[in-house]
Write a structure and sequence with these properties.
CATH class: Alpha Beta
Distance between the termini: 11 Å
Helix content: 25-40%
Order of helices and strands: EHEEHHHE
Largest sheet: 4 strands, antiparallel
């Protein structure tokens, strides 16, 4: 298993474009042996301490293999909507890991 954590920062005023992309991308995850484990929108009142900007959303996704993850990113249906992602997302921190 491979785990992906994404800290997602969106451009101001682009929430609807981001949500439109997510409606397409999230269901495609399962097509590649993946599973969205966690999708969280942090609230300022829940932040105990920080030394970086609070992300718009945090995602935790698992895939059975690196190949599955790569195939997800190459998915033709997803690629049709990448322009929405590029329009909406200013920056993403993508952290790969495994369960210990």
């Amino acid at each position: 298993m491979i785990f992906i954590t994404q800290l997602i920062y969106i451009r101001e005023g682009q929430q609807s474009a981001f949500n439109e992309f997510e409606k397409i991308a999230i269901p495609i995850i399962s097509k590649y042996n993946g599973k969205l484990l966690f999708r969280y929108k942090p609230e300022p009142s829940n932040i105990l301490e920080e030394s970086i900007e609070t992300p718009y959303e945090i995602h935790l996704v698992e895939f059975e293999s690196e190949e599955d993850l790569n195939n997800f990113f190459k998915d033709e249906e997803r690629k049709k909507y990448v322009h929405l992602k590029e329009q909406a997302i200013r920056e993403v921190w993508l952290l790969k890991g495994k369960r210990l």
